[in-house]
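Progress against Task 2.4 (sequence-to-structure conversion) is shown through the following example record, which the project officer requested during the mid-term review.
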Amino acid sequence: MPMFAHLLGGLSLVCIWSTTALAIKWGVTGIDYSVSLLVRFSLAFLAMLPLLIVGRCKLPPWRRAWPAWLAAGGGTAISMICTYWASQYLNSGLVAVIHGLTPLATAIFARIWLDEHIARNELIGIVLAICGLVFIFSGRLSLRPDGIPALLAVLAAMSVNSAGMVKLKGYSQGLDTVVISTGSMAVGTVISGALWLAYGMPVPEAIPLRTLGAIFYLALFGSVVAMSLYFWLIRECRPTQIALIPMISTVSALWLGNFLNNEVLTRNILIGSGLILAGLALHQLGTLRTK
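Structure tokens generated for the chain above:
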């Protein structure tokens, strides 16, 4: 039963993250990205509070809670800020490839901080999946000289997200998922609020209806539901397993684009998807054998 619950949670996360890219694109249309982030985190925090109250979740001692909240909320917020900013200057394919390095970075951080062993099959599986991502986006990658700071920003986003994931694994033990999620959304609200202040407190004259709908979707599903599932899976599973979910989401987003938006699937996409699935299968086969 626990394995089935983990699988169901992982599939739900893939479904949400597969639609997040389009929602983010719509969510910054017509407004400053700092406003979009602040509204997203604020709505998510307000949505989590009733769950905290209705569920009568007991707040843990401050010394136990704040490291988990900072790792979860700080890592997520900083990663989002860097990615949103860099997306203005980089090809989206390059951004996706860099975030596809998350499993490798996570495995390294897990080895350093959690002393987790990286099996040979897991390493080969991760390399195969990364090669698949490179194959998929090889025809779309472009980097101008003025994009180097943005490239470094995405690398920082990927690294911060991976580091936060591994740190949260240790800090979240024994803590309720709702408590972690609520605290992380509060931290994200504070950080995005500071960004909004730094940008001069821009206030849009009007928010397009589609933009508002996208922000609500990102707040409720992309943040509340997805982050709760994400933090729960981190607490229950190995970080290197959870790090593979963004890879699946990347591929599924491409297929959704073909199905819903008539986007062309090239030979590189098909070959890359096959490499990623092979890498995932190899990684999970070794994981099951160790149980």
